[in-house]
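Re: Re: ligand-bound prediction request (bumping)

Still looking for help on this. To restate: I need the protein modeled with inosine 5'-triphosphate bound, output as structure tokens. Inputs repeated here so nobody has to scroll up.
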Amino acid sequence: MPRRIDPGRKLVLASHNPGKLREIESLLRPHGVEVVSAGALGLPEPEESAPDFAGNARIKALAAATASGLPALSDDSGFCVAALGGEPGVLSARWAGPSKDFNAAMAAVNEKLGDTEDRRAWFVAALCLAWPDGHTETFLGRVDGSAVWPPRGGKGFGYDPIFLPTGGLLTFGEMEPDEKHAISHRARAFAQVLASCFGRVASSSGSGA
Ligand code: ITT
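Reply:
Sorry for the wait, this slipped through. Here it is.
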């Protein structure tokens, strides 16, 4: 049975990634929830030891919910490239190394692809809502496109400058936030969070993964 988040309720955003926090806060803004980040509460980052996005999202949301005593929303996501067998995938953050150098991570993707013709790529996001009693609900979103080179645009974060969504002319790095929200993996997963836990129909498009 899905649980609801009531208007005015406080929700922990269980992420330490500023790009994700910006996007999730902006997706939540119209829905009257008070948000606080895991970083602001001084919560530690748990080890992401699961083999898939949903498992890691669950680890992060549960850790934040049990430590804070509040419902928590996490995001585990990544950039997947068909010709690299879906990599970097769940290792997307790790490809950027401890200094979080996404220029290096994007260059590594391009280098591994070489002159491979197959440039199909996609983003996946798993959003997990967890409650302090251990109840969790997880929602997946995906957006398909291709990996381009060189990187284009400085508006997003992570791998956005090398992702061109199918049928589009702009990379995610070149899009305004609202344009990305209209089609992104995160917004598609978020639409399901809204429908299930807020009882709302989202205005953004998409059907999830
Ligand atoms: P938290 O676990 O604290 O949320 P993180 O950056 O470690 O932060 P992940 O383990 O989920 O998060 O790593 C996902 C990486 O995939 C992230 O660091 C980005 O580089 C990339 N990524 C995810 N969504 C993206 C998006 O919308 N645009 C660009 N890159 C994205």
